[in-house]
Specification:
Shape: globular
Order of helices and strands: HEEHHEHEEHHEE
Structural class: alpha+beta
Number of strands: 7
Length: about 200
């Protein structure tokens, strides 16, 4: 069914995943260095995909970066570090995260549990459970499982938004040549009040 190792993180592992993502962003932004995962928890040796999302806590809560992959060839700890660095770089949302922004970032991590290629996304997609990735003609885009619920989107709008993110036609998900992958994952996020990490 998938290439990912199906894993389920404990709350403690999820909290550590978010902490590692923040450490990686700060190390990259402040020192231009790649954080090393160090002594990792057992779950972080699994080879699975991970995504990191950076959102400003100020004003309109602008998305400052998002990166990652649902397929995981690297150990999870390294996948989180790489995704965090990519999310903080200018390649993600057009401008690199600057040091003054660090205290005003909300960081979340999605750990991929499983993924499946679908020929009928409208039927197979479960809102709140599945993230969606689309691939067509070298264009690629994806969105977190929690995003359609946060924004009140229907299945059609969710699929349309993923296609737009990939710079494809809004209805590319209906084309036979477009690969639509549904991925399940656990999402852990820093609380907006600066408190502990929450699992969404």
């Amino acid at each position: 069914m998938s290439e990912a190792q199906t894993i389920r993180l404990s709350y403690e592992d999820g909290a550590r995943a978010v902490e590692l993502a923040r450490e990686s962003v700060e190390s990259f932004v402040l020192h231009g260095q790649r954080e090393q995962p160090g002594s990792m928890r057992d779950a972080f040796y699994a080879r699975t995909g991970a995504f990191v999302r950076l959102q400003s806590t100020r004003g309109r809560r602008q998305l400052r970066g998002c990166a990652g992959a649902y397929r995981g060839k690297d150990q999870l700890g390294h996948a989180i570090v790489d995704a965090a660095i990519q999310a903080a770089s200018g390649d993600s949302c057009g401008s690199e995260v600057e040091p003054p922004e660090l205290p005003n970032l909300n960081i979340s991590v999605c750990i991929v549990n499983d993924h499946i290629l679908t020929n009928d996304p409208l039927t197979d997609l479960e809102l709140g459970t599945h993230g969606v990735a689309v691939d067509s003609g070298g264009q690629h885009g994806w969105l977190y499982p929690t995003i359609p619920v946060e924004n009140g989107w229907s299945k059609e709008e969710y699929l349309t938004r993923v296609c737009r993110k990939a710079r494809l036609s809004p209805f590319a998900w209906q084309d036979e040549e477009t690969m639509v992958t549904l991925f399940e994952g656990q999402v852990f996020r820093e609380r907006s009040d600066g408190g502990s990490v929450q699992e969404l």
